[in-house]
Amino acid sequence: MLKQIRNYFITGLVVLLPLLATIYILSAVISMVEQGFGPLIEFIIGKRIYGLSIIISVGVILGVGVIATNVLGKKLIEFGERILTKIPIVRNIYLTVQQIIEALFRKNKTAFRKVVVVEYPRQGIYQIGFLTKEGIARIERNLDLEVVSIFIPTTPNPTSGMLVLIPKEEVTYLDMTVEEGLKLIVSGGTIVPEEGYRGS
């Protein structure tokens, strides 16, 4: 009975937390816009217009998107990222969120191409990894071997890890999206693609 209640509770958390996190983030953005622009608009117009903060929030997001796509905007973002990545705790949080967002919304541009399984660090032990590069001619010439670059991430922070060069024939490609692979890593193996789940 207690085990069933525990399972219901965990299932409820898994369903609710992503939704609540999304609502919280959107509410926070709208609240910041409301606090920043609300008094100014009220001063100019002379009255408070409810719902205007949502429109402004959408406009701000679109504006940032437009700025981020031009050369100057990219340089400003790179400068800001360099500052953030020098702050110890902020760096880990920012890079983790950034990697997940990149995988979720910009799948074609992510550095991770495919989800793979490799035997590492020794035979009989398997690691989930991400294919980052195939056909590295300069290395293959020295090794006289066809290898691929595999990034082995750590849990729960997939932005840290190690690069390993594996012989191509020793890599097993999984029927799994990069998004699913990242969820698997971040959750410590508790969130897996439905077809691959064999637990009770």
TrEMBL record:
The chain crosses the membrane at residues 7-30, 50-72. The keyword Transmembrane applies. The keyword Transmembrane helix applies. Keywords: Membrane, Transmembrane, Transmembrane helix. This is DUF502 domain-containing protein. InterPro entries: COV1-like. It comes from Halobacteroides halobius (strain ATCC 35273 / DSM 5150 / MD-1). It comes from the Bacteria. PANTHER family: COV-LIKE PROTEIN 1, PROTEIN LIKE COV 2.
